[in-house]
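fwd from M.: "can u put these together and see what the complex looks like"

so here's what she sent:
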Amino acid sequence: MKRNILAGLIISLSILVASPATGESGDNSEYLLLKNGNIIPVTSDNIPSGDILIKGNKIIKIGKSLTAPEGAKIIDLDGKYAMPGIVDSHSHTAIEADVSEISVYLTPEVHIKDVIDDEDMSILYALSGGVTTIHTMIGSSNPVGGTNIVLKLRWGKSADELIFKEAPETIKWALGENPKQSTFPTREDKYPTTRMGVEASIRALFEKAKDYKAEWAQYRDAKKKGLDPIPPRKDYGMEVMSDVLDGKIWIRCHAYQSEEMLSVAKLCKEYGVKLGAFEHGPEGYRIANELAEMGVPVSGFVDAWSYKWEAYFTMPHHLAYLMKRGVLVAINSDSDVKMRRLFIDAARLMRFGGLTENEALRTITINPAIILGVEKYIGSLETGKQADIAIFTRHPLDPFTRVEMTIVDGQVVFDRVQYHADLQKLADEEKKAEESKKEKKQENKKKPEKPVKSEVI
Amino acid sequence: MKKLSIILLAVFLVTINLLPIYASGKNEPILIKNATIYPITSEKITGSDLLIENGKIINIGKDLKADGARIIDATGLNLYPGLIDGFSKLGMVEMWAIAATTDTTEVGRMNPELKTTWALNPFSVHIRTGRITGITTAIVGSSGSLFPGIASLIKLDGWTTDEMTVNDEFASILIFPVTPRDKKPELNDKKVQEIKDIFKEVKRYAELKKLAAAGKSDFIKTYPKYDALIPVVEGKRPLIIEVSTARDIEKAIAFAEEMKPMKVILYDCVQGYRVADKIAKSGLPVMLADMFGGFMSVQPYEPDEAYDAQWTNPAALAKAGVKFCFTSGGVASAAKDMPYFAARAVAFGLDHDTALKAMTINTAEILGIADRVGSIEIGKDADIILVEGDPLDVRSVVKYMFIDGREIDLKDNVWDQFYDKWNTRPKN
């Protein structure tokens, strides 16, 4: 209940801060000018003391001494740092509790978009860490787990409105300890329990999907010829897998061991499907040359390690190492809590692997945007891109920085000062309500007690 | 059976193949030249030298000379005392998913006699990766419920557990009963009373033992669990009380008051900011736990807390006058992150000096070891780090480390070994 009150309050106030973007002609309230900031566009040179002009949900100009039309909203950044909203390419945020369908091992028919929780406070907390777009994924219990969803954190909007509609669809795969149930045992008799079984199950599913496609092609062919064939039975999982075979759905494959990654990358090549990225891939550095050649990206952690056997043979340098060998890399959180400090993880890559500031920032902005296939819309501050901006007190890679404000689609959805004011107001109101409750109770006590009649119902 | 053999193989590989060959430096006189020294207990000194002999700091000043000493040019480097991790699991766990490598938690609630040194692995990979950000001293404690055991104080260098250990009976641990959010606090009083009763029994047991020893009473059977708690009731060994919420902290304060002369240190206190004045008034010191949280942790701790409560907590405690320090908390594989917890606290209002003290001298004072570690002073242990930059900055690199005057090979860790090896693979 409290969660809802707080959510509602913050939503209402954020709307007050940033007026609605649907201005009529002549009304310039859809313009927002961010002035006097240190602008870090990521894909181009930094602009010290620059401005960003936003119209509606888009950036329309970046530069020095910009002017806004009369009636535009102006926010003075006062030397603060503005960078593109952070993109988290692997999370399980903003969903109802169940993340994996563990009853069976191949579940392409399962969709995470069916369980989006638009009131999840983790959305607000993600915004408090400058994150504006997330890839919310199925868990890793099954070799083929189901389809994922890309969400734009338009806090306060409905589940459907959170969906990043321009993003290509993705499907979660998983290899290694999780699907073979060695770390999280589900059922003793559940297949697979070996890495061989994992790969065999994926291969079998591909063959099944090929047959399914052929069956439907045959049926359509016959119909075209004017025959009256019996349609094949519809299979929702196979519908998804058909789209995977057609390259419409990108595979996002949870994997830790390098050799396993390599064999699955080869498998994907064999079936001509799009392998969007390996997830985590802490051993990916061992096949950096091969991944670079095949053009397969890695979305991973920086220095989470040694929590299980397959997470042991890694190093915090692994993403930087991959990047230097030509692999597209992004840092992901896989966690509501870690998501809020991805910028610290990015800074670690300067220490571990010697990335430059710009290279480090790419791993949490434009690179994950490319991996998600949405780099045309987000991931950098550029004219024409969607206005998703994180405002930091200091340079985002400075150890003492923090997020002060987050803008999504040109709307201020997180403002630290406002947030604390709202929270205080809420606490005060609650205290007042409690006190008046107590007073009433005491008053009631003072009144002479009436004899209570027992009622028989 | 198959799984067991895999695990055994894993353990075999870990112990035989992967662990870095241990190499501790010689104990020679070392003269560090031209460093910027941050003594912590006094103002910083630029362009200063520091002389180490027999494991101690024996001189600090400009243009020092020492015949036969090894010279280290520290131009451009900042010199700090080694950092102290007030509560860790270093050496107790390699991989939590593999039970064979995990020794943090025993079965049962009443285990006050368990010593962490019995399980401590001096060759743990995490001791080596934990060192790279500057940690030289750590408390190692077990986890569990009620009385999980006795924490030890170790230096992160030594060929054997004994060589690492400064004190293997350093502090006892008590996990304070948790009052569920939706329950009335009184519900937990029973559980607190249970602890009080245990200590009452321990006192009685101690008295009877004394009488028996003096021949004034019958023979008393030895009860190791109570023996382990006698120094605690007598105030000779500190009791670390793990407690998190404001409502429980208040109870722990009252408990400590009643148990005097018991020496109590509060651990975690994630909601300390809500009762900061009360903690300050009690005079109890606080050791803060992990501030990043693993995958499973929930932040904020409770739904009506601010998103940044955990990060503003240290500043609030400092403002109220509470003596506190940082620790790495429960994650051995992320012990190196402790300085970055301090950096978050600075980003959310704590002053930089206090943050640094809360990893050095304040920690030493809280633990009662300030005569040996926690600052750069003549006569103290030569636990020293030379840093390129600020130790609170994730981008900084600790270039040199000395523990008891011995140089530590900071490259002696699996990460650097993997990195160096794979950098030799030809590129495409």
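replying to her w this: Chain B has two domains: 21-82+374-412, 83-373.
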